[in-house]
Structure formats: structure tokens, C-alpha cells
Amino acid sequence: MEKTWRWFGPGDPIQLSWLKQIGVEGIVTALHTVPNGEIWTQGMIEDLKKNIERHGLRWSVVESLPVTEDIKTGGPGKDRLIDNYRTSLINLGKTGVHTVCYNFMPVIDWIRTDLYKENSDGSRSLFFNYARFAYFDCCILEREGARNDYSSNIMEQVEQIRSTITQEEKEELIFNIIVKTQGFVNGNITEKDKHPVALFKNLLARYRDIDKDRLRENFRYFMNAVAPVAHEYGVNLCIHPDDPPFPVLGLPRIVTNREDIDWLLKAVDIHENGLTFCAGSLSSGLQNDVPDLARHFAERTHFVHLRSTQADPDRNFTEAGHLAGRAGLLEVIRIFELEQERRKKAGMKDFLIPMRPDHGALILSDIEHNVYNPGYSFYGRMKALAELSGAMAAIRHFCI
């Protein structure tokens, strides 16, 4: 597979010149300064692409071209926003960028309650504590009906948290869940927003009458509109699984398991309507056998996120080492290396499957000098890339 790296543009403290030195071949990035829903012009795309190529790299994947809330809710502005999306896809295809990762998660992107939980070896990792998340939902958001969504065991833990949590811990929980993890990737809420909880409640209210079936139909409407352009200009669209892959905050989730993904790919059944296979997101749901999903969806996978989690029956999960946890990444890599070889033998022009190491731990001097977005440290991902590169080399040698 092609070794890629998520880079957050010119403001990223990690320099493109470093990445060539550590074995990176392609860049995963976006036009982060363009407001959600606005057109990515061909000139903007060309400028960023040339900057990447000056460093001996290629712009392999867009992550992401955001789908706005009006599209997801089927709101009154959806058709104008879809037209803008189509124009951006045309401009990407004309410029030679042919893979676009996106998600269809309502309101909130990936969710964690702790951004730097200390591990036994002294490193720091992202962590999701379901009881603390339930406390946020029931006692900070005070969402109507929230308590009915949790078991009696979880609600007992919520009451324990409520009786001991400090104001500082409350503010940290708000920051972690709805500000920091969202704001650095074109999220709905940023660190500049003074009243994030009130803003978040307003966003949730837009989904009050939208269930899973309605969200699926809104996805179908969107994909029917953009698929012809994607096909004409050779742009592969790859939806990212929900993170975590189970219901949260009363919101519908449509990318959580095999049945969901099957439905999405068949809703508009063309090659360009494909999947970002995020082994980490999928592994945090105990309903998912990750290697089995990789085998089932290999032909429609356009991009792979390689990471793993350790999850328990109470829906807590933590980032695991890239060769540990329940994702089974060695088998996942073997499956996609074989799929890439199949594409090559079939004469497919773009047979390479881009992968990136995802959510590296915070290690070494990065702990003291942490200037990175959560989950996107330099040394932790460099370590992961080295491990995954070795695994790919061994699998290609012995299995291909």
C-alpha cells in the first residue's frame, strides 16, 4: 500500500520536508481555511498540490471535503451546497486529486473523553470512557430523554461522577468532547466560540425529527447528486465509519457495522461510492470483526486508516499499539496488499491503495513539547509508520 501521512497544511508544526525522510510517499490533507460548504477553486487546489510536490510527495487523499449539516439534515440549503460540493469534486478531478474521504456523522465527528490519558509505559493516548460521556450527556447537556439511553449500571456511575467531579474537570470534558476534537478539522464548534454547550444543543436540535432511515435517505439524495460527477472526473468518494460506531446523544448513526456499509454502497452502486476502511473506528465496536469486514469490503475500499483499539463490553475503549488491540492489523494489511495486487493484475490505472498510520500515541519529547492536534503527534505516528512499513514488507515478501 501507499504510505501516506495526514498533514494539516502550512500551519502544521510537522514540516513536509521531514516526512520524505521518514518514508512517507503521499500526503492526506485538505483546504482547511475554506469555510464548510464553500467551493474549493482549482487555483487553491493547484497551489497546495504544487507545494506538496515540491517536497517530492504527492497529494494522495483529500481528508476531508466536509458534508455540511444542511445536506445531512436535508435542509433548505442542501441543493446549493451539493452544487458547491460537485464543483469542488470537478476541480479536484481536473487537478489530479482522485480520492476524497468524508463522513456523514451528524453534528459531531470523532469523540473522546480524554485526549492524553497516561498509559503504563508513560506514553499518552486518546481514551473514551462511556460513563463520563453519559455524565456529559445527562448532566452537562441535560438532553431530554438522555437517561433512558443508558443502563442502570452506567447511570450509577454517572451519579458517582456527579458527586465528585470538579468544575475544572467539567470544563475539560466539554473542551475534549465538543471543542478540541472538532475544531481543528473544520468542525461545527471551535475554540473561538464562547458558549460551546449552547451552540452544541442548537445543533443537536436540528436532528430531533431525523431517525436512521431519514438520514440514510438524505445520504442517498446526496450520493445520487454527486456520483455522476465523481464517475466522470475519476474521483473516488470514501465514507468514514462512525467513531465510535454506536449510538450517541440520540443521534442517528449509519456507518457502524457490516449491514450499514452494505446499505450505503448499494444505495448508489458504483465503484466511486466507496469506503474509508478505518480499522480503529470499526474495532471500537465489539459487534465488528475487523478482518472479516476488510475481506468483505476490500473491492470498494479506496483508503485505509491503520490503527487499533482495546475495547470492553461497557463501551470504553483506548487506542492500542498499532500491532496490538482487537483490529487484527496484520491480517487487515494482508487483505489489502492482496487486493492491491489484484487491482494491479486487472490493469487498473490507480491500483495503489493509500494507507495512513492513525492516532499515534504521544511519546518521548513530544510529551513535554506537545504542539500537535490530539492523536496526531509526530514521534508516535512515526513509530507506527515504521511498524506498519515492516509489516507490509514482510507480508509482500511472504504472502504476495
Lay out the secondary structure.
Blueprint: E1 2-6, H1 16-21, E2 26-29, H2 42-53, E3 58-63, H3 69-73, H4 78-95, E4 99-102, E5 114-118, E6 124-128, H5 130-140, H6 152-164, H7 167-183, H8 196-205, H9 212-233, E7 236-239, H10 258-267, E8 273-278, H11 279-283, H12 290-297, E9 301-306, E10 308-311, E11 317-320, H13 329-345, E12 354-357, H14 378-399
Parallel strand pairs: 1-2, 1-12, 2-3, 3-4, 4-7, 7-8, 8-9, 9-12
Antiparallel strand pairs: 5-6, 6-11, 10-11
Q: Which key terms come to mind for this protein?
A:
8-stranded parallel barrel; alpha/beta; TIM Barrel; 4-stranded antiparallel beta sheet; 14 helices; 2 domains; 12 strands; 400 residues
Quick structural overview:
This protein has helices at 16-21, 42-53, 69-73, 78-95, 130-140, 152-164, 167-183, 196-205, 212-233, 258-267, 279-283, 290-297, 329-345, 378-399; strands spanning 2-6, 26-29, 58-63, 99-102, 114-118, 124-128, 236-239, 273-278, 301-306, 308-311, 317-320, 354-357. The protein is an alpha/beta fold and 400 residues long.
> Would you state the CATH class of the largest domain?
Alpha Beta
Total separate domains: 2
**Total DSSP helices:** 14
Shape field: globular
Record field, number of beta strands: 12
Q: Percent of residues in helical segments? A: 40-55%
Low-confidence stretches: none
Average residue-wise pLDDT: 95
Question: What's the CATH H-level superfamily name of the largest domain?
Answer: Divalent-metal-dependent TIM barrel enzymes
How far is the first residue's CA from the last residue's CA? Answer: 12 Å
CATH topology of the largest domain: TIM Barrel
Strand content: 5-15%
Strand order of the largest sheet: 1-2-3-4-7-8-9-12
CATH architecture of the largest domain: Alpha-Beta Barrel
Structural class: alpha/beta
Secondary-structure element string:
EHEHEHHEEEHHHHHEHEHHEEEHEH
For the biggest sheet, the summary is: 8 strands, parallel, barrel
| Rg measurement, Å | 20 Å
